[in-house]
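Input structure tokens:
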């Protein structure tokens, strides 16, 4: 009870002090009015400048973070490329060489490094890497065909198109069928001509490079590519998935001279 009385008394004392302060200011109003108005204007201007500075710093932070991420990605790609070059360079050959019986050591053929994690790079880096000059293919993934579908994006697909399909089903189709088809096609297509010795691969290599002239600025696969990849005709469910990928602006369907093309248009 005493605490409540103390709180009420303190509140009244604070009110009295504010009233006394107001009366003191009011008495000298004509002398301080101009200064108070100027102080108010300066305060508003300072608030506005502070807000603009905060917005600028936030924008600048995002730009710097974006640049940092790109630089780190580029450094990582360069590291991978250097590892590839090291693999086929003289250092690697020396490391893999076995000593001969004579005084002069003899180098042995280089063995492919077995890596449980496939290499990942950009197509431009791949075309300049040792992998593009080898007849033996290696499973490689490309940043060019990275794509992400969020739950929110999936929910924007019309219900009549989604049906009962789950997001996991669409992602699996995208990664295991579509992206895999793109990667296998461009792994072969970007190889040097002399590295393609198999007649079947050579025929496909020629077809791919000749068809690319139709869409020089896009990466694409055809409906037949998907058919050969899966080993069976596309069913109704697969067509629905392709339509959903078109709706999400990952693929674009183009028909030309009786051929159905799927262009990769995804950008984040």
């Amino acid at each position: 009870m005493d605490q409540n009385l103390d709180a009420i008394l303190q509140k009244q004392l604070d009110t009295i002090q504010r009233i006394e302060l107001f009366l003191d200011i009011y008495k000298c109003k004509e002398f301080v009015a101009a200064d108070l108005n100027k102080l108010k204007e300066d305060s508003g201007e300072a608030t506005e400048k502070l807000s603009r500075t905060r917005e600028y710093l936030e924008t600048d932070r995002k730009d710097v973070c974006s640049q940092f991420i790109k630089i780190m990605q580029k450094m990582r790609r360069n590291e991978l490329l250097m590892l590839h070059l090291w693999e086929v360079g003289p250092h690697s050959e020396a490391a893999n060489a076995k000593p001969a019986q004579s005084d002069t050591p003899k180098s042995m053929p280089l063995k492919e490094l077995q890596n449980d994690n496939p290499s990942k790079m950009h197509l431009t880096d791949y075309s300049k890497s040792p992998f593009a000059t080898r007849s033996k293919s290696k499973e490689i993934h490309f940043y060019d065909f990275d794509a992400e579908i969020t739950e929110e994006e999936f929910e924007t697909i019309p219900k009549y198109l989604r049906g009962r399909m789950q997001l996991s089903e669409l992602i699996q189709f995208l990664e295991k069928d579509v992206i895999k088809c793109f990667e296998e096609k461009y792994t072969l297509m970007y190889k040097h001509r002399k590295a393609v010795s198999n007649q079947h691969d050579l025929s496909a290599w020629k077809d791919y490079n000749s068809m690319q002239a139709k869409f020089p600025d896009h990466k694409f696969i055809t409906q037949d590519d998907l058919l050969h990849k899966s080993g069976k005709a596309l069913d109704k469910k697969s067509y629905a998935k392709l339509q959903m990928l078109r709706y999400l602006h990952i693929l674009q369907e183009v028909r030309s001279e009786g051929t159905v093309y799927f262009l990769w248009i995804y950008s984040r």
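Residues 29-88 form the longest helix (60 residues). The longest strand covers residues 251-256.
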